[in-house]
Sequence to fold (340 residues):
Amino acid sequence: MDPAEALREIAFWLEREQAEGYRVRAFRTAAGIVAGMAPDDVAARARDGRLKRVKGIGDRTFAVVRETVDGVVPEYLRELRARAEAPLADGGGELHALLKGDLHAHSDWSDGGAPLDEMAQAARWLGRDYQALTDHSPSLTIAHGLDAERLALQLDAVAEANEALGDGFRLLTGIEVDILEDGSLDQTREMLGRLDVVVASVHSKLRAESGPMTRRMLSAVDDPHTDVLGHCTGRLVQGSRGTRPESQFDAAQVFAACAEAGVAVEINSRPERQDPPDRLIQIALDAGCLFSIDSDAHAPGQLDFLRYGAARAEANGVPAERIVTTWPLERLLDWTRRHR
Fold:
């Protein structure tokens, strides 16, 4: 087993388990270090102990490298694989098996923790047919959002990644574009028109009154570039960031507009979001909406969070045929290009 691959796989399983960030970073940092060294050099340094003195290599990561050099699957990796055999969520297995892709994930181009090619490789390893890369837009400066120039550069990087990945998987170009206070989308029209997928989300003024928030969301849904309405209430129900109440808006009106425009309502799979709440999923179902089960992953291991979203969708009786992420790639792209 390649030492860098072993270290990256350990990081993947830790991300999936929602381990502390510093633990994940330790393994990803070590993976980058050994990947940049000649294999024979790694083996020699591991066997005589010199690798321990390399900055970024700790006791645990050294042990992993040493075991792989000796031709053994590392004990820690075996332990994590065994823990991963237990399902992340109760239920949703049949629906999860029907999911072909994911329309919401981030890379280190904005606030994600891994390069876009690693996100793509992890999605392919999980059996996805496609994965959208939807880094943030420029107004979200805290997340290092992409302006038009940086987004154009990312499109070239996605094309290069797809060429390297070959047939059988597609990394889709996209953005999680901020819905500004006036309801406009935080990116140029020209760039939005070049993307495969546009997820529109509110990230600011989340405590606005219902009237202005409703008008803001309706304007975004009415924009022909919008494909998915992301984490519509903005709530947080658990996690390191604490909790946050739902944004207030006229759900019946917003979801009716989504149904009319063919915009999918996102079922956000992040455990700390669980957004929309069940009662709003029911309103969106009654309105005739499409849905998109998305991971909102910020690291490779979080791509498997789709299992949480599938469990919630199944529990709420969402039909598979109304979930766009169960659709094959060609049908999905026909849908996202409907107004382009």
About this structure: Residues 206 and 310 are 26 Å apart (CA to CA).
